[in-house]
Amino acid sequence: MGTRQLHTVGEVASLAGVTVRTLHHYDRIGLLVPSGRSESGYRLYAYADLERLREIRLLRELGFGLDAIGRLLDVAAYDRRSALVAQRDLLVERLERTQRIIRGVDRALKATAEGKEMDETEMFEGLEEFDHTRYEAEVEQRWGDSEAYKESKRRTSGYGKADWTRIKKEGDAVFARLAELLARGARADGREAMDLAEEHRRHIDRWFYPCSPGLHRQVAALYTADPRFEAYFEKHGSGLAGYVQEAIRANEVRSTS
Amino acid sequence: MGTRQLHTVGEVASLAGVTVRTLHHYDRIGLLVPSGRSESGYRLYAYADLERLREIRLLRELGFGLDAIGRLLDVAAYDRRSALVAQRDLLVERLERTQRIIRGVDRALKATAEGKEMDETEMFEGLEEFDHTRYEAEVEQRWGDSEAYKESKRRTSGYGKADWTRIKKEGDAVFARLAELLARGARADGREAMDLAEEHRRHIDRWFYPCSPGLHRQVAALYTADPRFEAYFEKHGSGLAGYVQEAIRANEVRSTS
DNA sequence: GTAGGGCCTAACGTCGCGTCAGGGTCAAGA
DNA sequence: TCTTGACCCTGACGCGACGTTAGGCCCTAC
Q1: Most buried in the list A130, A206, B68, B124, measured by CB within 10 Å?
Q2: A95 vs B81: CB contact, 8 Å cut-off?
């Protein structure tokens, strides 16, 4: 560790393909503080700093905000391996999304060739900024080729647009009520919050896939990590993402005791 | 055409997975002006508007700025088919970039498993914000599986980091001198500018692939279209991208006459 | 006829840097 | 030894692409 040379900002910048200003910025906000300084105040980056920078750039490329990245890397520090695996999963997901978009372009090509118009509902496949029901289906896809996933796929494939709207509405209602609780200052491990967490679990269990309290907690962990989820949550009240996660965890404890 | 229903902002927003505010914004800056308004001033979007929105969102997903998108779509309006094909190419390029990043993560996984450190120069593969020599090699990759491409690949694979630095410096020098000309107010179709364009062509021809004036012009067309190129150019003087393109075009005319 | 959801414009806020401005540092050559 | 040019530092303002109120009109539904 650290056997290799230290680098100045400029060197790191050209290595990583970012500007010096970017590194200054990351330092200022505490996201990437170089592990050393020279006598004259020059920033000095060690190998570990480069590793961290790589992960920062990777997550930014995937659209995460800098504060979310900070939290993710703090969590990731405990287990490098599974953090890397998680990053891999996110990348593979993007691969698939990109392929969906390509198929959309192919459909557009076919449509223009035939002089027809495309189906408006499938025009934007893969391009939606964040449709959280659709995403929820993808989330547990990451949980592997589990029976749960296949079951989910089997069920959701039968839903029409109207079903999706209704299901989404039902899910949103739960979050809205949790937001109220949060605003009222109710505790996340209080009975009301736990009841709503349980309701959410059953919602998933019913419409998507069998969802045990344990799996539910794992899914909830993603809520605070993913920027698209987070943007959605924070709209409904600052700190809601973490609040929901706590409530779900509390509900799991309750259900297993 | 236009046989289908008109949509309000909210409908379009949920179809495309963007916010109403985003549509307002696109309208304000003239990027996507709905083709109609109701009596009461409501925006009304027709099918053609949705198509345009799809392309806007696709290009944004790929990192283009809104003004660049506007220009691209203006150009694209002449030939829908080749515009779609170009979009497809960009997406495939991203697919490949994502795969390179994944391979990087795999290397990181291997390194941590073995307790080693990664090679610093290959840590950021696929993550660089814009290395323009490397990009230049990719640009003509889009020109198909031409002999030129294979030749380029054969040549560039032999270059080391030092070579790249030198080649990049050489290329930058040409642009710097063009920027001077632009600042001095020299004409893009003047002798000096054309000479520099010719120098640039030979630069590519020597280090990358056989580059005729015609191919050179086609590559130059990408300069004004791609955000990464553009960012690079504008740093060296406002309007440089367009200036370079003009000079190259003028040089082509000169060389064929 | 009024309540609730959707639409309008206007205008300020935010995030991730880009871009000066003003000034030390350092290795190389005259 | 002195100077020159490349690189580093810390502010601090600017910008693109929206997010987010704020204040008010429209419209369907009970």
Answers
A1: B124
A2: no
Distance between CA atoms of residues A135 and A128, nearest Å: 10
Instruction: Spell out the long-range contacts of A133-139 with Cβ–Cβ below 8 A and sequence spacing 24 or more.
Output: A133/A164, A133/A167, A133/A168, A133/A171, A135/A228, A135/A229, A136/A204, A136/A208, A136/A219, A137/A208, A138/A93, A139/A219, A139/A222
User: Where on strand C do bases come within 7 A of a protein Cβ?
Assistant: 6-9, 11, 15-20, 24-26
The mean pLDDT of B191-208, rounded to a whole number, is 84
Axis-axis angle for helices A47-61, A66-76 (nearest 10): 130
Is strand C less than 7 A from the beta carbon of A22?
yes
Q: Is the pLDDT of residue A225 over 70?
A: no
CA distance A194 to chain B (A): 31
pLDDT confidence band for A141 (50 / 70 / 90):
very low
Model confidence at A139: pLDDT above 60:
no
pLDDT on residue B30? 96
Q: Which of A18, A117, A124 shows the shortest C-beta gap to B47?
A: A117
Contact B108 A84 (CB under 8 A): yes
Asked if the B9-61 domain carries CATH number 1.10.1660.10, the reply is yes
* Overall average pLDDT of the A144-158 stretch: 51
Q: Do B98 and A94 touch (CB under 8 A)?
A: yes
What is A9-62's CATH number, 3.40.50.300, 1.10.150.20, 3.30.565.10, 1.10.1660.10? 1.10.1660.10
**Does A82 score more than 90 pLDDT?**
no
Decide if B249 contacts B217 (C-beta within 8 A).
yes
Q: Does domain B130-256 fall into CATH 3.30.70.360?
A: no
Cβ neighbours of residue B90 closer than 8 Å, sequence gap 6 or more: B59, B62
> In this predicted structure, what is the pLDDT of residue B131?
37
Higher-scoring residue by pLDDT: B85, A248? A248
Q: How far is B192 from chain A (nearest CA, A)?
A: 32
Residue-wise pLDDT tens digits, A108-136: 999 988 988 888 878 888 877 643 333 33
